[in-house]
Each structure stands twice: as structure tokens, then as C-alpha cells.
Specification:
This protein is α+β, with helices and mostly antiparallel strands and 1408 residues long. Helices cover 55% and strands 11% of the residues. The strands form 7 sheets. It has a 10-stranded mixed sheet, sandwiched between helices. The protein has a two-stranded antiparallel sheet with strand order 1-2. The protein has a two-stranded antiparallel sheet with strand order 3-4. Helix 18 links the parallel strand 5 (395-403) and strand 6. It is a multi-pass membrane protein. Its EC number is 2.4.1.16. Residues 1379-1394 have a biased composition (Polar residues). The chain crosses the membrane at residues 22-43, 55-75, 81-100, 124-148, 204-222, 234-254, 744-766, 778-799, 805-827, 839-855, 867-886, 1115-1135, 1173-1194.
């Protein structure tokens, strides 16, 4: 096909077109669609909509296109007219692939469709050879066909070089008569018309070729851009359809002007260059002799054949392969090429009728996906011979948040975000379910929150665990978040409680019926910290809930490709459009493993201002450049979207579970888990991208110490991961198509800049002090080196608090010094001139920052703290790097740490260890110390020093002393002794009182007293007693336990049935449910294999600490030596700049001296002298800056494209008044659903909103009326589905007052009428399904509790009768317990435990 297509193209270009005038040639371009029309007719299949009408139009189009085979050969009577039908027929074969459908009943079409599928998978590889073959065919056929039009074909080669040079051309010159009077013919007068010889312009063929190539390329690029941003109708189909008519109109006008005035174009075009115009009276003969009527037939037939370009169905930012069948184009016929190449089969993958929009309960994980897999047969399609169903392509999203000691405000921000996602998903579900539309952005959503170390010792029982205050905090604030999002008071139903092998689980149903699941990790049962939480949800969601589905592996592959994990932090704030932009990137590129958004720091104070600028520059320049020239190296876990298929790669997810053994692992794996995960994905060939339009907001450190501690983790892990990537660059470049050697060089340059950054800052400070204070280089060098060496010394010997304090003091001093640097730099620039390297670099840096801020208008004010960033450069790029590397051996998290409760056994163990340590110290001191030997020792040391000097144990000098850490414990132990004795006495008295009261009432002791609980609570605290007191305490506790056992039966506990924490009243009266056996087994195997808690082996910890210190020493030695060598070389070159330098060509100073004695004028040129290393390093940073600036510009264009694709442009959309009613509803269905499901004002739809509009005016507030209304308020409807149904069933034409939420939409009357029609059609459809016994929510008994449509319709006022709210409650816990039936196991009942065990073990026995 390609060979025949090329032959037709050559025949048209070299034989047919040269013999036609320009008008006929343009007309002929509308006659190249013959074979596409034939293939379109043959591909029609049974069941196609309006098949008969389409067949008739196809036949008419074929006949219309076939007339081109006859008309011009008859009209153009020349010897090569036979070539017209041959060229047109062969040329039309090039677009066969787009018009072949595998559903055709014709066998040959089916065979061609198989070839099409094979070619689609291997197109780029195949076209490597096809392109070469086409070049050979074009060249050979050109020579063969030129023999028909040229006498000597060899002239093509002989005159090839001359054609690009100026050569002689013979032209027919026409001279215009100046005088109107007639003069007699004179023999000496020159003729008016004559042939002359003129010189041609050089490189004319090149210029013509460049114009043609550029025009075709721009047409293709902008056409593709219009398709990508979803403005295809106005900006692609419309211009393409008008290309030939507009071109003909322009050519007719140009020919008419030239006919009237041959010299009109003399100053525009060369005299010898113009196209062939029709002869005669063109305007009069256009219809009759030029056959314009037949051209109109060709144009209309081409419009029908390419009608698909008016109805695009692809997603936003679709790849070129999805937009065009063949991603290449034909420059000669660019308009026909891109129109006929635009895909016809880009149909939506998911239909509304194929989506299971019923929300199932969270009882069995397999049921969740079974609703996806169990479908009718007509929804399945063949995917490479395998059964892949359209439903498998639905986007499924799991939001996984890792929680770690968030404040209430931070937690509310995260919950607000997921509640907004729940509302958005519910609106899309209702729009598809009730309004019968197809939403390409529909997704399924579920939230998982993972609490690290979620349990603590109970205040009532020293041996039992309860959830900590952060879990209880989430239970309290979740209602606040729901109320904030829905702008009305909402109270969610208490969470369901699940005992699990790793701790516990709480499950909420949000107002949109999506699940919010809190996983409570007990660090005694499962490994804690963020990386292991990520391993938990990866293996649970992807390994258990996806891979264990009873479906075909091909379906699992498609589901995994369309399943995403949205990683969140516990304090993140975002909106649904931000997530949708990330999903767009995922849909655009199937090889995309992760995508991150623009993170905005939130908080108050100077440190937050600094981070605003730092984050802005990092995203504007660094991440944007990484996105454009390679891949983003880090997709932060606070807000990123990961593809399930990429995470499930064996060398990604399995390797991510690697336990840290090597010292470097602790730095790379545990300190920067997000960056390491991205590194693993890059090394497996996946791409990571950045979306600047996807905004998210997170709290950042507000204090200096917290900021330094955070960056102490980030800096070493970043360097370790980049070094890992650079060290394995050959394999990474080979396996990852998005990472190239230039990109590796760019990252290596950044790494060199990072390593030598402190040395560069140091040299900058030295030079600035020399310029500002007019001191010598050595004096400035000494003044700067002493504080640096002192800070390094402090980082090695002092504890973290002193290090932070010294760093803060030095940062303040350096901030003042940077003002001197600013003055010194200004002085230096004034002396060296604007052409000096320093001036150029400073101007370029400032300009790039300012331009970046201008093209990010919404973030422009982030550049304002740039001055704070400038004065903080020494602190952040010198002190912070030194602090991070000096503390490389510290692998603790360091931020958001809180005090944890300890059991009595732990306290006693610590007390014994403390006493043993004190005894050992006394023995050593008395044995080894000379003063102790003489009996002159001063007793126990109460202080220790950061700096300690000793001489043979004769004396010890301690500097920067502070109390020992154990001293605080000793004091607390002494205080707890007194509290313990008091608690024991009170407990004994209360115990006797309880016994007496119980005997009086004739009942047993059913509960412990509150004072007893307080005594137990006191026993948790630190206590230390003598050996006799310990014995007495043990005796009393044993007797107390014996008494309690005799009075109160001990409850048998099973962590998978009735754990102690599940009875906590703070968890509210939620149902208690249990995991199925398969999931329990999964968690047990998972914990045993990957997540078993790490052993607290002191020997192992000591060995790891020693190895980490050794690693720290090696790293910091190499780092300091590199910077020392760099500083020494540059500084010495600066001192000897007179002997070894490079003359800078810019900014040369010219001195002119006149010598009177000799009358001479002496001109001296003074060049700026630069040391070689400094010049190289300045050039090095300049190259990086240029690369980042260009990368930012290109990424900004991509972001603009993404934004334009996500919104509807006013100039490109159809006017509201011109849209049909159905089209208006289809276009605004999601917005209509969002308005109909609003919870606010649901009970007051018949009333005005004046209360809301005038609520801020004190004089018009109806405070008393509102309080009275709330006092008599009934239980509110709390689910979005119920609110939607109530309003939807209440809609009536002409009664817009019933649903004022739709008042904001235009054409409300027409909208109401269409909504009523769709409601009626939906009711009929469900009634028919119920008659047939089909499964739906109105006929399935298990779903009848959700409400029947006939019950809703029977209510005249649209009220919901008998509807049980399954997700949200508007009453108290006591009312809930009376009004709703719950399956609650009595955790203290022996029979319930036995029953549960029998139920769970019965299937296992049957299986055996």
C-alpha cells in the first residue's frame, strides 16, 4: 500500500500538476479520497447506527470521487492526461488503515484489520525500513517519470549544483504603454513584448522548499495541538474543511490581479516566478469552462468521508498515536493528509450502562471487585485474543495517606480534601446513573489512612493497649471536615471497627458513599515508619485485592494499568481538579509511572517565607527542566499519583521491601523513601512527570530547628539516590527511553555543583569582604575559615540542640554579612563594568527569576521573599550541608516526635539499668580515679560536657556543661515514689469500700472503681523503690489481683475477635465486624515475610551505629577534602592572577594618554583578568541556568496546553442559546448533578436564601428564629445520593422554585423539561428490567433498603419516606443505637467468641 501510494504521489507531483493550471490543480486535491470511501462502505457492519443512511452517502461519495477519473482527462486534452486517474487512485490508497473496521462481515476487510493491529504495535520499528524504501521509490520513479517531461534527464544531475546558484533565465517581458495616443511604428523603437535573459536569485529552490516545509510543519503541529486541547471542531475541522475553498479564492483573486496588471507583483515575487493561471476571461468561465460545479461535488464528498474530524472522542492531551493512525504527514497534501489520518475509531472505552454504579458494603474485599468482573457478555471485547472488558478501563483511585502526629487543623485539611473528592465522585456517578451521560473523567475512589504507632497503654489497664490521641482526634474532627465541605452540619455514622493482625481498622462511609478506611498499626505487631506503611498499602491494595481476583490475567493487566494510588500526607490540602490533571498525564502516556503536582508550603514566619521562594524556584526551574529533558527524579509522597502497574513491577515493589542492612541503606532507603521509590521506577524504565497546574498545599516547618532537622534527612538521601542513579547510568539509559546521556551529564553537573557549593559560597564571602572592607585576601580568608571550622567541630562533639543553636547564631551573623556581600558585589560590578562575568551572571540569574515569576502569574508573589533567600544563602548552602553530613549517622525521623507512655515493666527495666550504670560508674571512678583512690572523690557526676579534656585521669576539664539526660529520670523516679505510696493507700481504702457496698446490695463486684483505675494509672508512671519496698509492692499487687479475680471474672482476649481497644468509648458505638479468612491469612503471611517488627537487639544497634559513624566519617572527609582542594586552587590562582589569567573580552577599558613632550597619543586597553578555574566554574553554572530557563519555557507551554485542554474556551464553544436541550444537559450533567446532590438547603428548598445572603448584617440576622427552627428540626438527609434523588424526583416543568439550586444555570425551563424526560425514561427502563427480573437496585431485595423509585415517585412533594440513611446520621449515638439495627458482637461474651471462631474455622475444615 505504501509503495503504491508513493508512486501515485510522484506521478501527481511530476507529471499531472505541471500540466494543469493552478485552479484545476487545487480542485484536484479534493478528489483523492476514492479508496477511503470504498473501504468505509465495505466496513459497515450490522448493528451500526443509521447504517442504511451511511451506506447511501458512501455510495454517493464513491461516485462523486470517481468523476475525477473522467472529468479532467476529458477537459485536459494532452498526451499525459491518462496519468490523472492513475495518480489519484494510487494516492488514495495511502489512507486505507483509518477506514478498516474489524467488525466488517467481509473477509478481506477482516484480514486487513489484523494487519492494521500488527502495524499499530510495531509502527515505529517498521517505518524505519519503510521510510528508506519510500525514499528509494521516490528517487527511482522520479527519474523514470521525468523522461516523459524532459528531453535530457541527465540534466537533473548535471545542472543540480548550478540550480542553487545565480544563473541565466529567459523570460517573456511585457512593457506597459505610458501614452494613450497612437504612434506610428518606428523601425528603431523597441517592441513592447520581448524575451529577455535575467539573472536568478541564489538559493531560490531552498527558500521555496523552506516555505513549503515550514508551512506544512506548522499546519501539522497546530492541528495536533488543537486536537490535544479538545478544540478540534473550531480549530481543526473547520480550518481543514475551508483550506481548499479559501486557497482557490486567493488564487482566483491573484490571477485576476495579474491579468489586469502584469507588473503588480514585481516588487513581491521574482519576475521569473509565478504560477500558471487559467487563460481567457476567468471569472466568466469559472462555472462553465472550469467546471466549478463538479468541484463542489468533490468537496462535499470529501467532507462526508472525513466527517469524523467533527466528532472527536479522545481524552485530553491524547498522544499522537491516539490522535492519528499514522503519526507522519504528507507535506504536499497536508490538509488531506491530517484529515484522513485523524482516527475514526477513538471511541470512548467505557459506557455509562457498563459501569456498576451501586456502592457495595465493605464486607468482603473480593466482592468489591466482583461487581466489576460480573457483567453481561455484550460488554466484553477482545484484546489481543483475550477477554478484556470495557469496564476494566475505568479509572480506580486509592488515596493513601500516611499519618504521623498531625495537629487537628492539619488533619482537617487532609479530610477536607478527600471529602471534596468524595463529593466530586458522587456527582459523576449520579450524572452517569440518572442523567444517562458518559463522563470520560469518571473514576472510583477509596481512601486509606495509615496511622503509625496508633496504640498506647491504657490508662485503666497497664497490660492493655488502646488507640492513641491522634486516632481519637481524627474521630472528632472528621465531622468538622464533612461539615466544612458540604456547608451544613453533618455527623457521620460511627466507624465500623475491625480487629486485624496488624492492629485494627476503622471504616467510615463518607456522604458520597465512598469508604474512608483508617488502618491502625500496632508497632508491636507490625513494622512501623512511613516506608513500611507504603509497603502495606501496595501489597494490600495491589497484591491482595487486585492480583487475587478470580479473573483472567489479561483483565488484571488492564485493571492495573488504570488503577492509581494517590499518595498523601496527613496535612495536605488539594482539590479534585488537581488530581484530574495528574490522571490526564497518566492517560496520555501508558509508560508514565508517577506524576507529581506543584507543592505550596503553608505556614507563617520567616522560615515559611524562605521556603515559599525555595519551593517556587525548585518547581519553576528544576522540576520543569527534569520533566522536559528527562524524568523528574522525585515525586513527593505528600501529593503524587502512582500507576499500579509500575509499582507492581517485581524490581520496584519487591525491592522496596528491602530491609536496611548496609549503612548506606539507612540513608537512601529510610531517610528518603519517596525519592528511592522513584529511583527504582526510573531504573525499570518508567517515566516520572510534573504537572505545574496541579496545586497542593502542605504545612512546612515554621521553626529554624525543625527546618534543619527536616533537611538533615532530605539532603543526604537526595545525594545518595542521585549517586545511585549516576552509578548505574548505563543500564538506566539502556532500559529507560526517557533518560539519555545528556540528561545524565546534566544531573552530574548538578551533583558537582552541590558538592562544591559550600566552597563556592566560602570564596564568595572571602571576595565580598575584600571588596567591601578593603582588607587583604588572607585576612578575609582567615575571618571566614575560623567560624566554619568551629561549626564543624561543634557538629562532631555537641548534641543536636547545641548544633542547631550555633547554626542559628551563625545564620544570623551571615545574614548581616550578606549585606556586606551585596555592597561588595555592587562595588565590584561598578569597577568591572556591566560586561564582566559577575555582572552577566547576576543579571542573568535575576532576570530568569523575574521572568519565571511573570510567566507564573498566580505564583508571582513567591518571588518577593527572594531577598530573604539571598541573605540565607550561607546558612542554607554552607552550614546546612555541613550539618547534614556531620549528622549522617543520625537516622531518626526527628520531626513531630511526641512522648509515649511506658508500661510498668519497661519503667522498672529502665530503673534497673540506670542503677546498674550508676554502680558501674562508681566502681570505675573509685578504682581508676586517683582522687577516688585517695578518698577525695566528689560523689556522682551530675553534669557532663560537650567538650571534655582529661590528662591520665588526673583531672577533667568540661566545657559547655549540661545536666545528664538520666538526671531527669532520677528526679521523676523520686517523685513517683511518693505518688505510688499515696495511690496504694487510697486504692486499699476504696477496695474495702467497694466490697462493703457490693455485699450490702447483694450483688457481685461488676466493675472496678474509678479510684482503682486511677491507682493503676499512677502505677504506669516512673517509680523507684528500695528492695524491701519492691517486695512489699509485689505482695500487695498480687493480693490485689487475687481479690479482683475473685470478685470480677477475667475477660478472655483474642486480638482478632475482642481486643481491648475495640471497647473504647471514644471510638463511638460503631459496628464490630471481622475480616474474612483469606484477608487474615494474607496479613499474617505479609507480616511474617516483610513487615515483622525489627528486633531491638542492642548489639545490632551498636554495630549499625558504629557503621553509620564510619560512613559519616568517610563521606565528610571526602566532602571536606574536595571543597578544600577547590578553595585552595581558586584562592591561590586569585592571589597570582597577574601571572596566570585569562583576558575577558567584554568590558574592556580603554585609556588614552597624550604625551606632550613627544606629541604622542598612547592607547592602552585594560582587560578584566580571570583565573581559569573560576571562569570554568562560572561557565558551568551559567550553562545550568540556561538549560533550566529553556526547560521552564517549554514546560510552561505544555502546562498552558494542559490548562486549555481542561477548560472550555469561550471562543470555541457553542452558544448556550444555539444548543439543543439534550446537548445542554449532556454538557453540564456533572454540574447539574453536583447542584442536585447538595446537602445544604435540602430541607429548605422552598424558602428563599435571604438568610444566607444577609447573614453578615447584624440588624437582619434571624438568630432566634434560626435557633427555634433548629430545635424542632427533624433528622436531615445526609447522603448525597438521597439528596440527589429527592430533588431529581421533585423536578417539574414550570416549577423551578422546587429546586432553586439549579437557578444558576441558564435556560432553566428547558433544562427542567429535559431532566423530567430523562427521569421518565429511566423509570421506564428500570420497570422493564424489573419485569424481566434483571439485577438492579429496584428489584434486588438486598438493595431495597436504599429506596425504590416508585416509593419516591409516590410522594407528591418529593419527600423521602422510609429511607434509612446508611452513611450519615443526624442524631445522637443513643438514638442511633435505638433506631438502627447493628450487628454488634459482645466483646465480653464467651459465646460470641466461640461462635465467631466456629464461623471462621468452618470453611477451612471443609476445605481440608
Amino acid at each position: 500500500m505504501e509503495s503504491l501510494h508513493v508512486l501515485g504521489l510522484v506521478l501527481l507531483l511530476f507529471v499531472v500538476l505541471p500540466d494543469l493550471d493552478v485552479i484545476k490543480a487545487v480542485m484536484l486535491t479534493n478528489c483523492v479520497c476514492f479508496m477511503p470511501a470504498v473501504f468505509s462502505l465495505l466496513s459497515r457492519y450490522k448493528g451500526e447506527d443509521r447504517r442504511s443512511v451511511k451506506v447511501i452517502l458512501d455510495i454517493i461519495s464513491i461516485i462523486a470521487q470517481a468523476t475525477g477519473f473522467v472529468v479532467w482527462p476529458i477537459v485536459e486534452l494532452h498526451k499525459r492526461s491518462w496519468a490523472i486517474p492513475v495518480a489519484v487512485f494510487l494516492l488514495s490508497l495511502g489512507w486505507w488503515e483509518n477506514y478498516i473496521d474489524k467488525r466488517s462481515p467481509i473477509k478481506i476487510i477482516k484480514k486487513l484489520s489484523k494487519v492494521k493491529d500488527d502495524l499499530r504495535r510495531s509502527r515505529y520499528f517498521t517505518y524505519l525500513f519503510i521510510s528508506i524504501w519510500k525514499i528509494i521509490i521516490i528517487f527511482c520513479s522520479m527519474l523514470a517519470l521525468l523522461s516523459l517531461t524532459m528531453e535530457h534527464t541527465a540534466q537533473v544531475f548535471r545542472l543540480f549544483k548550478q540550480s542553487f546558484q545565480s544563473h541565466m533565465i529567459t523570460v517573456h517581458q511585457i512593457r506597459k504603454s505610458v501614452l494613450d495616443s497612437n504612434f506610428p511604428d518606428l523601425p528603431t523603437a523597441s517592441p513592447l513584448d520581448e524575451e529577455i535573459v535575467i539573472d536568478s536569485f541564489e538559493m531560490t529552490p531552498i527558500y521555496v522548499a523552506l516555505i513549503q516545509v515550514s508551512a506544512s510543519l506548522l499546519c501539522y503541529v497546530f492541528g495536533k495541538f488543537a486536537c490535544k486541547i479538545c478544540i478540534q471542531g473550531f480549530s481543526f475541522a473547520f480550518p481543514i474543511s475551508l483550506t481548499v475553498p479559501v486557497t482557490m479564492s486567493l488564487l482566483i483573486g491573484a490571477c485576476g490581479i495579474r491579468t489586469e496588471n502584469e507588473c503588480f507583483y514585481e516588487n513581491i515575487l521574482p519576475k521569473y516566478l509565478f504560477w500558471t493561471c487559467p487563460e481567457g476571461e476567468f471569472f466568466q468561465d469559472f462555472v462553465s469552462k472550469q467546471f466549478a460545479w463538479i468541484w463542489l461535488v468533490w468537496l462535499l464528498s470529501q467532507t462526508w468521508i472525513a466527517i469524523h474530524i467533527w466528532t472527536p472522542k479522545c481524552e485530553r492531551l491524547a498522544s499522537t498515536e491516539k490522535l492519528f493512525v499514522n503519526p507522519m504527514y504528507i507535506g504536499v497534501l497536508v490538509d488531506q493528509s491530517i484529515a484522513l489520518n485523524r482516527r475514526r475509531d477513538d471511541i470512548a472505552e467505557v459506557k455509562s450502562s457498563e459501569i456498576d454504579l451501586e456502592v457495595t458494603e465493605y464486607n468482603d474485599n473480593s466482592q468489591y471487585y466482583e461487581t466489576i468482573s460480573v457483567k453481561t457478555n455484550d460488554t466484553s471485547s477482545s484484546h489481543n485474543g483475550r477477554s478484556v472488558r470495557n469496564i476494566d478501563h475505568i479509572t480506580r483511585m486509592y488515596a493513601c495517606a500516611t499519618m504521623w502526629h498531625e495537629t487537628p487543623d492539619e488533619m482537617i485539611q487532609m479530610l477536607n480534601s478527600v471529602m471534596r473528592m468524595d463529593e466530586d465522585q458522587s456527582a459523576r456517578r449520579n450524572a452517569q446513573k440518572y442523567l444517562n451521560i458518559v463522563d470520560p473523567d469518571y473514576y472510583e475512589f477509596e481512601v486509606h489512612a495509615y496511622f503509625d504507632d496508633a496504640f498506647e497503654l491504657s490508662d485503666d489497664n497497664d497490660e492493655e493497649m488502646v488507640v492513641n490521641r491522634f486516632v481519637k482526634q481524627m474521630i472528632r474532627v472528621i465531622d468538622v471536615a464533612a461539615s466544612n465541605v458540604h456547608q451544613t452540619n453533618i455527623r457521620l455514622k460511627p466507624p465500623k471497627k475491625y480487629p486485624t493482625p496488624y492492629g485494627g481498622r476503622l471504616v467510615w462511609s463518607m456522604p458520597g458513599k465512598n469508604k474512608l478506611i483508617a488502618h491502625l498499626k500496632d508497632k508491636i505487631k507490625i513494622r512501623h515508619r512511613k516506608r513500611w506503611s507504603q509497603v502495606m498499602y501496595m501489597y494490600y491494595l495491589l497484591g491482595h485485592r487486585l492480583m487475587e481476583l478470580p479473573i483472567d490475567v489479561s483483565r488484571k493487566e488492564v485493571i492495573a494499568e488504570n488503577t492509581y494510588i494517590l499518595t498523601l500526607d496527613g496535612d495536605i490540602n488539594f482539590r479534585p481538579p488537581a488530581v484530574q490533571l495528574l490522571v490526564d498525564l497518566m492517560k496520555k502516556n501508558r509508560n508514565l509511572g508517577a506524576a507529581c503536582g506543584r507543592i505550596h508550603p503553608v505556614g507563617t514566619g520567616p522560615m515559611v517565607w524562605y521556603q515559599k521562594f525555595e519551593y517556587a524556584i525548585g518547581h519553576w526551574l528544576q522540576k520543569a527542566t527534569e520533566h522536559m529533558i528527562g524524568c523528574v527524579l522525585c515525586s513527593p509522597g505528600c501529593f503524587s499519583l502512582f500507576r499500579a502497574k509500575a509499582l507492581m513491577d517485581d524490581n520496584v515493589m519487591r525491592k522496596y521491601t528491602t530491609k536496611s542492612e548496609d549503612p548506606l541503606h539507612y540513608v537512601q532507603y529510610d531517610q528518603g523513601e519517596d525519592r528511592w521509590l522513584c529511583t527504582l521506577m526510573l531504573q525499570r524504565g518508567y517515566r516520572v512527570e510534573y504537572s505545574a497546574a496541579s496545586d497542593a498545599y502542605t504545612h512546612c516547618p515554621e521553626g529554624f530547628g525543625e527546618f534543619y532537622t527536616q533537611r538533615r534527612r532530605w539532603a543526604p538521601s537526595t545525594m545518595a539516590n542521585i549517586m545511585d542513579l549516576l552509578g548505574d547510568y548505563k543500564r538506566t539509559v539502556e532500559i529507560n527511553d526517557n533518560i539519555s546521556v545528556p540528561y545524565i551529564i546534566y544531573q552530574a553537573m548538578l551533583m558537582v555543583g552541590t558538592v562544591l557549593g559550600p566552597g563556592t559560597i566560602f570564596l564568595m564571602l572571602v571576595g565580598a569582604m575584600v571588596a567591601a572592607f578593603k582588607i587583604s585576601n588572607w585576612t578575609s580568608f582567615g575571618a571566614n575559615i575560623i567560624p566554619i571550622l568551629f561549626f564543624i567541630f561543634i557538629c562532631f562533639v555537641a548534641n543536636n540542640n547545641i548544633q542547631i543553636l550555633i547554626a542559628q547564631i551563625f545564620s544570623s551573623a551571615y545574614a548581616l554579612l550578606m549585606m556586606a556581600v551585596l555592597v561588595g558585589t555592587s562595588i565590584q560590578l561598578s569597577e568591572d563594568g556591566i560586561g564582566s562575568p559577575s555582572s552577566i551572571f547576576l543579571i542573568g540569574l535575576s532576570s530568569s527569576f523575574f521572568i519565571a515569576a511573570v510567566i507564573h502569574p498566580q505564583e508571582f508573589w513567591c518571588v518577593v521573599p527572594g531577598f530573604l533567600y539571598f541573605i540565607s544563602v550561607p546558612s542554607m548552602y554552607l552550614l546546612l550541608i555541613l550539618y547534614s553530613l556531620a549528622n549522617l549517622n543520625v537516622v531518626s525521623w526527628g520531626t513531630r516526635e511526641v512522648q509515649t507512655k511506658k508500661s510498668k515493666k519497661q519503667i522498672e527495666q529502665e530503673k534497673k539499668e540506670l542503677e546498674e550504670m550508676q554502680k558501674t560508674q562508681k566502681q570505675k571512678k573509685n578504682t581508676n580515679d586517683l582522687f577516688g583512690f585517695l578518698g577525695l572523690s566528689g560523689g556522682d557526676d551530675e553534669e557532663e560536657g560537650s567538650i571534655t579534656f582529661s590528662l591520665a585521669n588526673l583531672f577533667t576539664c568540661m566545657l559547655c556543661t549540661y545536666p545528664k539526660a538520666n538526671e531527669e529520670k532520677v528526679q521523676l523516679l523520686r517523685i513517683s515514689d511518693q505518688l505510688d505510696s499515696l495511690n496504694k493507700k487510697i486504692g486499699e481504702l476504696e477496695k474495702h469500700l467497694d466490697v462493703g457496698q457490693s455485699l450490702l446490695h447483694g450483688g457481685g463486684v461488676k466493675r472496678r472503681s474509678s479510684m482503682g483505675r486511677r491507682s493503676e494509672r499512677g502505677s504506669e508512671r516512673i517509680s523507684t523503690v528500695t528492695e524491701e519496698a519492691e517486695a512489699e509492692e509485689d505482695f500487695e499487687s498480687n493480693s490485689e489481683d487475687a481479690d479482683s479475680e475473685g470478685l470480677e471474672p477475667k475477660v478472655e482476649r483474642d486480638d482478632l475477635v475482642n481486643p481491648y481497644w475495640i471497647e473504647d468509648k471514644d471510638l463511638k458505638r460503631g459496628e464490630v465486624e471481622y475480616l474474612n479468612g483469606a484477608e487474615i491469612q494474607f496479613w499474617k503471611e505479609m507480616i511474617e515475610k516483610y513487615l515483622y517488627p525489627l528486633d531491638q537487639n542492642k548489639e545490632h544497634e551498636a554495630r549499625v551505629a558504629s557503621e553509620l559513624k564510619e560512613l559519616r566519617n568517610k563521606v565528610i572527609f571526602g566532602f571536606l577534602m574536595s571543597n578544600a582542594l577547590f578553595i585552595l586552587i581558586v584562592f591561590l590562582l586569585q592571589l597570582h592572577k597577574d601571572q596566570l589569567h585569562i583576558n575577558w573580552p567584554l568590558g574592556v577599558k580603554t585609556n588614552i594618554t597624550y604625551i606632550p613632550e613627544t606629541s604622542e597619543v598612547r592607547i592602552d586597553k585594560e582587560y578584566l583578568q580571570l583565573e581559569p578555574i573560576g571562569l570554568v566554574f562560572a561557565s558551568f553554572f551559567a550553562i545550568i541556568l540556561i538549560i533550566q530557563f529553556l526547560g521552564m519555557l517549554f514546560h510552561r507551554f505544555g502546562t498552558l496546553s494542559h490548562i486549555l485542554a481542561s477548560i472550555e474556551l469561550t471562543c470555541c464553544r457553542q452558544k448556550v442559546d444555539d444548543m439543543t436541550d439534550d446537548a445542554f444537559v449532556d454538557k453540564n450533567a456533572v454540574q447539574i448533578a453536583r447542584q442536585l446532590q447538595k446537602l445544604r438547603g435540602l430541607e429548605d428548598d422552598e424558602k428563599d436564601d435571604d438568610d444566607y445572603e444577609t447573614g453578615d448584617r447584624l440588624a437582619r440576622r434571624k438568630t432566634i428564629q434560626n435557633l427555634e427552627k433548629r430545635r424542632h428540626q427533624k433528622a436531615r438527609v445526609g447522603t448525597l445520593d438521597v439528596a440527589f434523588k429527592k430533588r431529581f424526583m421533585s423536578i417539574a416543568p414550570g416549577n423551578e422554585a422546587v429546586t432553586p439550586v439549579l437557578s444558576g444555570l441558564h435556560r432553566s425551563k428547558d433544562t427542567m423539561r429535559v431532566l423530567v424526560d430523562r427521569r421518565i425514561s429511566m423509570i421506564k427502563k428500570h420497570n422493564q428490567m424489573e419485569t424481566l427480573g434483571a439485577r438492579n437496585q429496584f428489584s434486588n431485595p438486598t438493595n431495597r433498603q436504599r429506596g425504590r423509585l416508585d416509593r419516591l415517585v409516590s410522594s407528591s412533594n418529593g419527600s423521602v419516606k422510609g429511607y434509612n440513611n446508611s452513611a450519615v446520621e443526624a442524631c445522637s449515638d443513643e438514638e442511633t443505637g435505638r433506631n438502627q439495627r447493628m450487628q454488634i458482637y459482645n466483646t465480653g461474651s464467651r459465646s460470641s467468641v466461640v461462635t465467631y471462631r466456629e464461623e471462621t474455622e468452618a470453611p477451612r475444615k471443609r476445605h481440608k
